Amino acid sequence: MEGESITVRHLVSHTSAIRDNWDLYGYPGWSGKEGYVKGDSSLPLGEFLETAYVAGGERYFPKENWYTNFAPGEQYQYSNFGAALAGHLVEEQ
Question: What pTM was estimated for this model as a whole?
Answer without folding.
Answer: 0.78
